[in-house]
Design brief:
Blueprint: E1 6-9, H1 15-25, H2 38-53, E2 57-64, E3 67-75, E4 88-95, H3 104-118, E5 124-126, H4 133-141
Parallel strand pairs: 4-5
Antiparallel strand pairs: 1-2, 2-3, 3-4
């Protein structure tokens, strides 16, 4: 059954939720090529949140009534690295495990696109690990396409 999903801008009172859920699911960002200590991965997530808060950003919260279902962190002043073209960069998105496959991720992405369009930003970009098949399917279904790949060689 799909959730009744509403999207709103986060307030400072949402920061604990954003940190807790993000830390809890941060392991989904880890590639099997670079397995990391879960606590260090969670700390890296905390540093990402701290970075986002210093930038031109938006934090959007997906809710069903008063219950939070997930969030997205978006940075607006991080230009594309090759062309320096303006973009909305999805720094992190997380959906509570019990709310996945119910339209929450798609609603968050739609909200990011609406903000980007309102701001006249021509692209929305993000990164995802190759192994996160569920997220890759969500992004592909939302119209995202691979622009470039990070290649890594284990030594």
């Amino acid at each position: 059954m799909n959730a009744t999903v509403a999207i709103r801008r986060a307030t400072t009172s949402d920061r604990a939720y954003v940190r807790e859920l993000g830390r809890r699911v941060s392991g989904t960002s880890v590639s099997s090529m670079r397995p990391g200590d879960p606590e260090l991965v969670a700390e890296a997530y905390d540093r990402l949140v701290d970075y986002v808060l210093t930038r031109d950003h938006a934090i959007l919260i997906a809710t069903d009534g008063d219950a939070p279902l997930g969030f997205v962190l978006v940075v607006f002043d991080l230009p594309e690295e090759v062309t320096l073209e303006e973009q909305a960069f999805v720094a992190y998105m997380a959906v509570d495990e019990g709310s996945r496959r119910r339209g929450v991720g798609g609603a968050l992405l739609d909200a990011v696109e609406a903000i980007a369009r309102d701001r006249g930003i021509p692209h929305v970009s993000l990164m995802v690990t190759e192994e996160n098949e569920a997220a890759r399917a969500l992004y592909a279904g939302a119209g995202f396409a691979t622009e470039r790949r990070l290649l890594t060689k284990a030594l």
